[in-house]
Each structure stands twice: as C-alpha cells, then as structure tokens.
Design a protein that fits this description.
By secondary structure, the protein is of the alpha+beta class. The protein folds into two domains: 1-264, Probable tRNA modification gtpase trme, domain 1 (Gyrase A, domain 2, 2-Layer Sandwich), CATH 3.30.1360.120; 268-357, Elongation Factor Tu (Ef-tu), domain 3, CATH 2.40.30.110. It is 21% helix and 29% strand. The chain contains eight helices and 19 strands. The strands form four sheets. A six-stranded mixed sheet has the order 10-11-12-9-3-13, with helices on both faces. It has a six-stranded antiparallel barrel with strand order 14-17-16-15-18-19. Strands 5-6-7-4-8 form a five-stranded antiparallel sheet. A hairpin with a 6-residue loop joins strand 11 (172-176) and strand 12 (183-188). The N and C termini lie far apart (53 Å). The model has no long low-confidence stretch (mean pLDDT 93).
Length: 357
C-alpha cells in the first residue's frame, strides 16, 4: 500500500514512468540540463534493496564482499562488490547499516534476484536471513551544486560532508555519494519521505532516472547490470579508488585473485569517462568499444553505464586498456559499437587514476 501511495504522489507531480522507473516529468532534455546546474531530486524506485539481518549478518557479508564491514556503521557506508571465485564482479552494492544486526544492500532492481541467489549459496550455517526489502522504503537522490546546506535545512539537521559518510536525520538515512557535484542518497519510510519531498520541492526540481544517471556517470561511479555481471575485476571498475575494496580485511570470495592482481601489477584495464557527441541514444551496458589501435579480434573496451548529455550525444563510463588512454597530446581512436561506429573521446574523471600498465 505504501508503494502504491508513493507512486500516486509521483504521478501527481507529473512523473512519466515505465516499469517502475521514472523517465521524466515532462521535459527530459531540460531535466538533464538542470541536473548539472541546479538542485534536483530523483525517485530511485528502480533501485532494489536486499536486507541482511541476524546475529551473523555482518560476519557473513565480511566473508563475501570486497569492502571491510568493520568500516560500515551508523556513520559510514561503502560501495562493495560480490565476486566469483575468479574475482569477477557478480553484483555491486551501496552497503549501509540500518540497525545493529541489519544491513541494507542497494543495487539495480533487475540484479536483486541473481544477487540474492548468489549470496544465499554461501549462507550454510550462518545465522543470517537475506531477503528483498525494497517495498518498505522510499529511495530518493538529491543533488545540489551549492552543497548540502539546503538539504540540511529541509531535514532540520546536518548532512554528511564526505563521500560514504552517513547521518540520520529523524527517520531519514542520509548518505553522501561520490562525485565533485554534491549528491546524496536519502532512504526512509513513506510518511517521512513525503514530508521531505514537500520541503525540497521549494527549491529542487524533480528529475527522472536518466538525469540522475548522468550525475552518476560524471561522478565516475560504476555499476554492474545483467549484461556486465562477471565481466570485470573490482579494480577495473575503480572500486579500489572509491573505498570499495579492502586489501587488509582477510579472505572473501574472489579475494585471492583480486589481491594477486594488485600485488603483481597485472591490471591492464580501468574504467574511464568518455564522451560520444554523435551518439544521442545512450548505449546499453556491455556495448563494445573498438579501436584501430587495438587487436581486430577483440573489443577494445566495454561500456559500464551511460547517459544522454544535455549538449548532445552521450557520456559514458567504460573499461578500456591502459594503452588506449591518452599519452601527452595523443589519444587512441575509440568507436562505439563497431569499427565504423560513432567516435568517442576520453574525458577526465573527478578522481585520479594510478599510473599502471
């Protein structure tokens, strides 16, 4: 019933939805432009929630995920990946603690069931229950280039100032996300989130999921979808640069391969940001990139996520070999979807990449 009531509120605000995903509120091009320059809020109902509860919940996840669960608590969240024994990322979560024996894992809705199935294989005798729990909470994204002051005023309290930091403002959990453009994840039950929506609506424009996706791309924040599950090592997605991989926590599924890659310096690819001015429709995750500077029998890169650019074309995050990264004034030619596809140019990320090769 809460889910239906929240959807009715979005509809009253003018939301155009498809499959539980808010596409826009009437003018998607304007929403993307506003997202880059002003305060916006986005329904994140297309994100699912897995709840891990029980006395062994934290210890169980400590043995499965790349992040250190000892760093997750009332004041701190983390990105975390669940890997195969070969070190490939099956699923990628935003992980936060709700209560002492309850943790929440946020991820795209279409990955919830496969992620649950993979995690449950390892439960054995652990006293932990893993279950989908998205219906109980409203998820909102909020972004404001002026920072978090107006959000703090709407919440009547402080907001976190550093990425991955968490504050609780009454019944609302507030998580600071990565990116130079201040972004926040807001999580709470419907009554509290409706009150917050009304307060934010004074200065923040509601935008659809594509506009929020653009901000995630600009932040250099990865995600894994069904098309890219088991395609990347965590470091290829820059998770080690975003606090999502611990090299000191001990064993977890896939840890040996992840650690060996780091210590032997064998990482040959990393995620980078690209712009494709001639490609208006954002490519799907898993779309190949090609380059005449790369082998003809192998794709030169793989799209991680993408979003339309308000100035035309699209921006995307893609994993590509170090050899194709710019050196001096030179940059390798990259084409989307095929050797004759639209050209893409490398763009900077908001965080530095280590020199590797």
């Amino acid at each position: 019933m809460d889910e239906e009531a929240w959807q009715a509120r979005l509809a009253d605000a003018g939301a155009v939805t498809e499959g539980g995903r808010v596409l826009h509120y009437g003018n998607p091009d304007l929403e993307r432009r506003v997202a880059l320059t002003g305060a916006v809020m986005a329904d994140l109902g297309h994100w699912g929630v897995i709840r891990a509860r029980g006395p062994d919940a934290a210890n169980f996840l400590q043995g499965q995920l790349t992040a250190d669960l000892r760093e997750v608590g009332p004041a701190a969240s983390r990105l975390a990946a669940h890997c195969t024994p070969q070190g490939r990322v099956r699923s990628l979560f935003r992980l936060l603690a709700r209560e002492e024996e309850e943790l929440l894992l946020l991820l795209p809705r279409e990955v919830v069931e496969p992620a649950l199935e993979a995690l449950r294989r390892y439960v054995l005798m652990a006293r932990v229950v893993l279950e989908p729990a998205g219906e109980g909470w409203v998820r909102l994204g909020y972004a404001d280039p002026r920072g978090g002051q107006r959000l703090a005023e709407a919440l009547g309290g402080e907001v976190p100032g550093e990425p991955d930091a968490v504050h609780r403002a009454g019944d609302v959990i507030v998580v600071r996300l990565h990116g130079s453009h201040p972004r926040f994840l807001l999580l709470g039950e419907r009554p509290a989130m409706e009150r917050l929506w009304e307060r934010l609506d004074v200065h923040a424009a509601p935008v659809g999921a594509p506009a929020w996706e653009l901000l995630a791309v600009l932040a250099g924040e990865p995600q894994v979808y069904p098309q890219t599950s088991e395609a990347f090592l965590p470091q290829m997605l820059n998770l080690d640069l975003l606090g999502g991989v611990s090299f000191a926590k001990g064993c977890y599924t896939g840890q040996e391969v992840v650690a060996r890659t780091r210590h032997l310096g064998r990482l040959k690819r990393r995620m980078r940001r690209l712009g494709c001015p001639a490609q208006d429709e954002p490519p799907a995750p898993g779309t190949a990139l090609h380059s005449p500077a790369w082998r003809t029998d192998e794709a030169a890169g793989t799209v991680v996520r993408a979003a339309a650019d308000p100035d035309g074309g699209c921006q995307l995050l893609a994993v590509i070999p170090h050899e194709l990264a710019p050196t001096g004034d030179q940059a390798a030619e990259l084409r989307l979807g095929g050797p004759e596809g639209p050209a893409c140019q490398l763009l900077p990320l908001p965080y530095p990449l280590p020199e590797e090769g």
